[in-house]
Design a protein that fits this description.
By secondary structure, the chain is α/β, with parallel strands linked by helices. The protein contains seven helices and four strands. The radius of gyration is 22 Å and the shape is globular.
Length: 212
């Protein structure tokens, strides 16, 4: 599992708060870390586009609860690029999402963020076999860069992610593929809450043998 990076400024506040005597600290002195970053690193975008990217990123992270820590540890960078044919593109080697200024369609951005989720959090390794089977793709078909892009398992994955976030796709994604990806994203039915462990004075802790 990838470690979540804590910003130096946050770490400094945390150290200062913990260094104070317990009696000198009010509840508000303790650090509360946001569930996800307030912003993504962007380059070449107007303020309005940057704000829209921030909103979409927060929505994307919130909609992928099983991989929140992974996404927070390695968020993508978003760069404006006006001279490309597609409306958006993703570069796995640099974890960069290229977008056209003023053209930030929700489906398009979610599709490209899904590629970041895939390559950063290991979707191909985790569910590659199940996704190919659900989609009716040969088990030997490479995840990407093999044949037409519309046949790549990686493309079906990205579209299934967008579908699970409320978008529609004309890519022919099967309901089975959507379900496989939904479960991997952590969007299925919530698990039953675990029974809390109760520790009593004089009693051994869980899995600790009693010594008489």
């Amino acid at each position: 599992m990838k470690a979540v990076r804590i910003l130096p400024a946050v770490a400094a506040v945390l150290v200062v708060a913990l260094a104070l005597p317990a009696g000198a600290r009010a509840p508000s002195d303790f650090v509360s870390i946001s569930p996800w970053p307030l912003a993504v690193e962007t380059h070449g975008l107007a303020d309005s586009d940057t704000a829209e990217i921030d909103d979409l990123w927060n929505e994307f992270v919130a909609g992928t609860p099983a991989h929140t820590a992974c996404l927070l540890a390695e968020p993508p960078r978003v760069e404006a690029k006006t001279d490309m044919a597609p409306r958006a593109a993703y570069s796995p080697s640099t974890a960069t999402l290229f977008v056209k200024p003023g053209d930030l369609d929700r489906l398009v951005v979610f599709h490209e963020l899904a590629h970041h989720l895939d390559f950063t959090c290991g979707a191909a390794d985790d569910i590659g076999v199940d996704l190919r089977a659900a989609q009716g793709i040969s088990a030997s078909k490479p995840w990407w860069k093999d044949g037409s892009p519309v046949t790549w398992p990686a493309e079906y994955f990205a579209n299934a992610v967008a579908i699970n976030l409320g978008e529609h796709s004309r890519h022919g994604v099967t309901s089975g593929t959507v379900e496989v990806v939904e479960e991997w994203m952590g969007r299925g039915a919530p698990a039953e809450p675990a029974t809390p462990v109760v520790l009593r004075v004089g009693e051994p802790g869980p899995d600790v043998p009693r010594i008489d």
